[in-house]
Amino acid sequence: MEMQTLALGFFAAIAVGGLAWVFVYPSLSGDTKVEKRLSSVARTTPTVRQVDRVQRSRREQVEGSLKEIETRNAKQKKVPLNTRLSQAGLDWTPAKFGTLSAVLGVTVLGIAILFGASLIAAAGLGFAAGFGLPRWTLGFLKRRREKKFLAALPDAVDVIVRGIKAGLPLFDSIKMVAADAPEPLRTEFNAIIETQTIGMPLDEACARLYDRMPLPEANFLGIVISIQQKSGGNLAEALSNLSKVLRDRKKMAEKIQAMSMEAKASAAIIGSLPPIVMLLVYLTTPDYIALLWTHPIGRIMLAGCVLWMSAGIFVMKKMINFDF
Start and end of every Type II secretion system protein GspF domain (predicted)? Predict the structure, then answer.
């Protein structure tokens, strides 16, 4: 009992001492007065400087411009046919494109029937020729035009930077690019000039470049000019940084292409090996391999092989195509 009493008294004394250290000692030692004096000296009046207000306003304008551009791009998920034709560099109307596609499909259908193909096979060939082939050609022309645009865009931005540093307005610098740049850059910058001439602001005219040329680099140019027109700043420095970014992206794309060429060559060899082997076997012993399309089980096996080979080629294509 005595030991318990002594222990309780000891812990009670420690508790009282701790409370006194926390609450009583600061007032006795003068730490509280020192802290109050330091806080009174270090306290600043809550004034808002003009520089902070300007920076906050510019940040809000930049965020608003980026949000507007993201909203506009999100709404343009489904591209109409006339826009796709202009992106491919064709001046056709959708009606003309549809007519030519229908004529091509009917022509291939008639040729397939004349050569003795079944109605289902001829219809499949006609559909592929009338619907798939024209759109694939349209996509091919669009990609080729975009590559030419990307190859000439950094030099065009450098011309604009040099014109601005020489004292020319932005619109006159764009005119210089439109006069001397190769196609399709000349056409796109002429469209900017024509759009601005009819009364549209220059930042909106440059932002519409992304509608005709749906590339991140074109979007970067529109964003830089739009932000500078709304919030001000050194446009020559911003465009110079943009030119550096464009060249770095081009170097990265070429580096990725060089590093993926080995994988592309391997995929091409693996994908072409089965048809080549089938052709060689057919040339040497046609009766041996003819069972694949004459016997019902052979047809099933051939269809399965085509399915698995297509799946393998699709997987390899996804593995060697890089987005950055």
Answer: 158-282
